[in-house]
Queue: 2 jobs
Job 1
Amino acid sequence: MGEGEESKKNPEAPVEIQCGIITNRWWVQERGEIFFFYRPKVGREEVHGAEEVQRLYIVLRPESGERSVVEKQDPASGKEGAKKDDGHPHASESSSDSVAGEEGGHGIQKVKIEDEVLVRFIVMGRKRLPPPTQKGRPFWGYVEMVTTKIEDVKSALQGEDYNTSTRGHRHNPPARAAGEGVYGILRHNPGGRKMHTHLIYKLEFPPEDGDPQETLNIDREASFLIQIKNPEVPENSQFRGLQRKRKASFPAHLQGEFGRRRRFLPLDPPDFLNYEGCEFLLIAASDDVEGELGVELTAECSDLVETASIAPLLKGTWA
């Protein structure tokens, strides 16, 4: 099928993107559900603007891929392992420096993503997505938690109360749902010298953009170049990233993809994202996925957002 051919045949019928080849230039490595959440700053029960946002989270739940069995970190490593000890896998600012097991993911566990749950809980460093008007400007993010249990993510989105020696009792509010849809990870120009990868998505909710979505650059649909950072290359003054102990420790076959001292790689395979402490860059490529690829993503509602306040998701208003 040529690029855009199906859409031209019947523009009223969306084409659900499947894993496999689209054209000789595009290959779908993975597809699944995507969710966006934001958390108000500590002590705030409502948000009225970007300055009151503490964190922007992306949650990816793959449903199919070019490989039916993928590799993720050993469940005894990172936050995934720490939760077994304390039962509270919160991914919040208040506890980010004190949770037991604050280490990057390592080891290997096999997961059949079409039959088993696999969820990645991701933090965006700038608390917003790259705007399409700033193509070429990288936005840093990292994988905070990887798990095979939906309840772990729901727990991470909840609020919590804690005490500090300097400020006394503090309340970290629960996250708010800001977007829900579908995503794909695509390999562009496979086999070519300039092969690169894209993360694309399209929202199902909210029905229309509101102030939270516009402020956080959560467009109706978007395409980003995505690159994985080498955890073994020393930091420089322009890019500090996570502390060394929090960085991912990839298996030898994944780490070997970097070769000798290469700083960044395309996201190929997506297994890199299955390790806590995996750092990456998103670079805006397009806000018209259908126009870029010739296909349209379709989405269905999920129950994952039931944990969070959903006013931003359904009404497009701050909460």
Job 2
Amino acid sequence: MEEKSPLKKKNNNTGMTNPPAEAASLLTDDLIVEILSRLPARSVHRFKVGPRFHDFHFADVSISAATPIDPSLRFLPRDKYWYVAQLDACNGLLLCRGYMPSSPSAKDDDVVESCYILCNPATERWLHLPPHPKVPPGGRVFPRLTFDPAVSSYFHVLQFEETDQKDYITGVTIYSSQTGDWKRRESRLLLEKISLYSGIASVFFHGMLHLLGWLRPMKIDVDDVLVSVDMEGQVWKTIRVPSGGMSFGIIGLSQGCLHYATTPLTRVVNKKKKEEENTSLATKREEVWYMKDYDSKEWVLKHSFSEDELRTISGMKYNKVAAIHPECDTIFLVFFNDDTLASYDTQHRKFRRILNLEKNKAALFVPYVPLFSDSFAGADGQ
């Protein structure tokens, strides 16, 4: 699932097909949310007109026929929310941020307020969460959702916080649908200073939320780690991930195990070294790891392939691994040069194009499995 940027505007006066849209596609959802939160109501209100109010896209990656899901989220009241941004997904539920006027009599120049919305697109049930605690000026938040219908109908929203003064996790504010309250927890139990990656999906597993971050201070070879926290904010842990040097990593839950996939970052120092650099890159391999034993935190290499191998199969040069299939040995790849989202079966070496991204630019890709049961506690369903 992906969220398209509403900042798309065609420009035929340049060599680029759509430079504003291409620039907007590089923004993460957290950055877009940060930008919108600083705009006056007049600017945000522009997004209310037309189909771009709820601008999501669901790409069907299943082979068998599936019940279609309406990506426009039309069941959310358009007269209440001026703009809705998708933030996270977990076991069939979506966490969104809605922007609305501060009061019914608000003028265009007034600053808009934001709120969290939880919804189930399959059943069209939704819930407007109570106001969340305000973040100090200059602070950054990373909202994430946890929900497991096999265990409970209750859910949690965790709002991780960083500040300009301390460019690492300083704490988390947790909302529980069981109590209906927000509570603040400091990250003092987290012994290391860690910054979180924005625009990367999290994983709820073994009652803990897992997020990908990196150790501070930053080094040339970035030390990526998993940060895990329980739903009370009392237990904090760090888990080392396999070192991939300069690489882009993502995490996912597949076949009941934590997975970690890396994409080597390409760097060309100068023209003289370009040929040498390209040759060395051809030997670098994309890797998919899984945690064989959660208690011992043992990672096992599951699949690996080179860029040349994938280019031979697909005929394209891909940019990164975007997501991991929750039920089989398939990863999802983004080919920005060819505007393509594709799947790659790493076990059978099968490649399939899924979606043309030319008109569906996205910064965040999140696996979404519809939940057709009404196990979502507290939804108003209006």
